[in-house]
Each structure stands twice: as structure tokens, then as C-alpha cells.
Specification:
The protein is of the alpha/beta class. The chain is built from ten helices and 15 strands.
Length: 349
């Protein structure tokens, strides 16, 4: 049986169209949990907790936000009581989010945790250390209603923006968070303040590090659990692109959550760059996001045991849910949480 560490980013869309809590978070997450529990699988839920924090701040003025917060709390407590692992995911731009006419308006100047103040003030959520401290405390106070032993010990940076790690290290150390799952192996993004580049990071399913996850340090006090990716050769990539056009032309429109993550301006891609990209190898995450059965089968058969999968519930659709259901209905796959991994495999590779 191949064991895959399943992680989900529990959040709304982060662009101009956020979608709804019900469609982006509640319904798809419950459908996913119901499916994977059929073979006693579990997952790590990276909760975008600053969204919840902002709901708490504003709910006295907006009854619909109070309703959203209650839905989220009810689901998180239910999932935690069912044995799923809930951990820390931070999108600090929520601290500046405004709610007007039934719509969220975002300022992305503080999208990255590193852009908060580096003042050593754990009581101010507008500082790096204060944001991590307040977020951890809020999560633990909620989940201890159903699990007194619960601790936040794992982190995923919003937008995978973990670097420079040294700037946020102390905030994690003080809060006893020693596991990170922000690195997306071999991938990169060149969109200004949202940029990252993981093309030269250790190609491991898990490894220790100290000052940066770019370098494996055997005695490092932090554990990186990177999101697994697979390099799809150019010819196979072309075949998959043709496949999705012919067999699944409406797949992207069938997702449960309706919204957009387009929060940076694009100058467009030239025709020649599009052609160049089309004929290049593709780095594909181990994910159902914008994926289809045949490509996901290819990827999941390539990855080693204890690889890490990422799913955004807002991007799930009936096709990908059925694909996951087929996986758990066999004895070939079982999904586990990051905490399960520590129980089953004590040491990283």
C-alpha cells in the first residue's frame, strides 16, 4: 500500500472573486473527508486562520459573517473530532481586508508574513511574532474544545512564501512550530512580491534544515515536508493537453468553489511564449487541483511512499472527487496526515 501525506489549504479564493465559505470550504471539504474516511484515511488541514480572525472582528456588524464563522468553527471541530490534523496556514493580507456590500476587498501589501513588523512584540498581531502567536493561540483555544492534547506544530506559508526563512524563524521557534510544509519542489513563480523559486531545493520527501529549507542539515531542528512534484516530459505533456481539450473541455468550470486567485496584474504572455511553454516539460504538483484522472494516475504512480499531496477544496469537482474515491476503494492507496507520518515513520529519509 502506498501512503500519501494528504494536505489541504482550507481557504477562500484570494482574488477579486473570493467565492463563498459554503461553496469553497464547507461543502467540498466535507465531501473530501467523507471519501477518504472510507478506508480510514486522514489529512492535514492547513487552516487560513486569519480569515477566521477577521470574521471575528467584523461579525458584530454583518450577520452573514457571523454565519460564515460559525460554519467554519463547526466544521473544524467536527473534523478534529474525527481525527484529522488541523495546522497553521497564514495569509496576513486578511489583517487589512475590508468587507463592503457583501464583497471582500483586499490590499496585498502584507500578503507575505515577512512584511509584518519585525518588532519583538508577541502581543501585537501586526508583528511577525505576534501574528504567529495570536494565530496559534486562537486555533488551540478552539480545537481544545474537542481535543485537550491538540497543539499547533506545523506551518504552511501563504503563497508558499516561506523564504527568507531566517526572518520568521524565531516566531516559529517561540511557538514550538518545528515542521514546515511550504516548499513546492522544483517550482517557481516570478510575479514580483509573490515570487518564489524552489528549483534547487533538496529533492526529498522529508528532510531536516536549520536556517533555510534550501539546504538539508542532518541535525537541523526543523523538518520540511515539501509538496511533491513530478516532471512530465514534453511529449507526454502535449498528449495530456490534447486529452483535456478533447475529453474534459469543461472541467475547470465544474469546480465546487467559484472564484479567482488572480491577485496580481499580468501583462499577458506572448503567442511565442505560449507555444514555447506548450512544448516544454511540465512540473506538476501531486494534486487534484485543475487536474484529471489520467494525469493524476500518471503522477501518483511516479511518486515515492510518503510523498505529500496538496488539495485546495475550492478547486475540487465531481470528477476529481470520484477519482479520489476510486483510490481509497482499493488497497493500493491510503492517505495520512503529517502527524500520522510521525507516528508511522519516525525519521525523515
Amino acid at each position: 500500500m502506498k501512503k500519501i501525506i494528504l494536505t489541504i489549504d482550507y481557504e477562500l479564493f484570494l482574488g477579486e472573486k473570493t467565492g463563498t465559505v459554503k461553496n469553497c470550504m464547507i461543502e467540498p471539504t466535507e465531501k473530501l473527508a467523507t471519501i477518504i474516511e472510507k478506508n480510514e484515511s486522514r489529512m492535514t488541514i492547513f487552516w487560513d486562520i486569519l480569515h477566521y480572525y477577521r470574521l471575528l472582528e467584523l461579525e458584530k456588524n454583518f450577520s452573514e459573517l457571523r454565519h460564515d464563522r460559525n460554519l467554519i468553527k463547526e466544521q473544524i471541530l467536527n473534523l478534529a473530532s474525527r481525527g484529522h490534523d488541523v495546522q497553521l496556514h497564514l495569509h496576513p493580507h486578511w489583517l487589512d481586508a475590508e468587507y463592503e456590500n457583501g464583497k471582500w476587498n483586499f490590499d496585498y501589501k502584507r500578503f507575505k508574513l515577512h512584511n509584518l513588523s519585525d518588532e519583538n512584540n508577541p502581543n501585537d498581531i501586526n508583528t511577525i511574532i505576534g501574528c504567529v502567536t495570536a494565530s496559534k493561540r486562537l486555533m488551540e483555544n478552539i480545537i481544545k474544545e474537542v481535543n485537550q492534547e491538540y497543539k499547533v506544530n506545523t506551518f504552511r506559508a501563504g503563497g508558499y512564501l516561506i523564504e527568507p526563512f531566517v526572518k520568521i524563524k524565531e516566531a516559529l521557534v517561540i511557538n514550538e512550530i518545528k515542521i514546515d510544509s511550504s516548499v513546492c519542489l522544483n517550482s517557481f513563480n516570478s510575479h514580483g512580491d509573490f515570487s518564489f523559486n524552489f528549483r534547487s531545493y533538496p529533492n526529498k520527501t522529508q528532510y531536516n534544515f536549520e536556517l533555510t529549507p534550501k539546504y538539508l542539515v542532518t541535525t537541523g531542528s526543523f523538518l520540511e515536508v515539501p509538496i511533491t512534484t513530478v516532471r512530465i516530459p514534453a511529449l507526454i505533456n502535449i498528449l495530456f493537453k490534447l486529452f483535456i481539450r478533447i475529453k474534459y473541455p469543461n472541467l475547470e468550470n465544474e469546480r465546487i468553489g467559484v472564484g479567482t486567485n488572480e491577485f496580481h496584474k499580468s501583462n499577458g504572455i506572448s503567442y511565442f511564449k505560449k507555444i514555447y511553454k506548450y512544448f516544454n516539460p511540465r512540473i506538476n504538483q501531486l494534486t487534484t487541483d485543475s487536474n484529471f484522472k489520467e494525469r493524476l494516475d500518471y503522477i501518483i504512480n511516479k511518486v515515492p511512499n510518503y510523498s505529500t499531496m496538496i488539495i485546495h477544496p475550492k478547486l475540487l469537482n465531481q470528477h476529481t472527487l470520484k477519482t479520489l474515491e476510486k483510490y481509497v476503494s482499493t488497497d493500493k492507496f491510503r492517505f495520512i496526515s503529517i502527524q500520522d507520518f510521525h507516528t508511522e515513520a519516525k525519521k525523515p529519509e
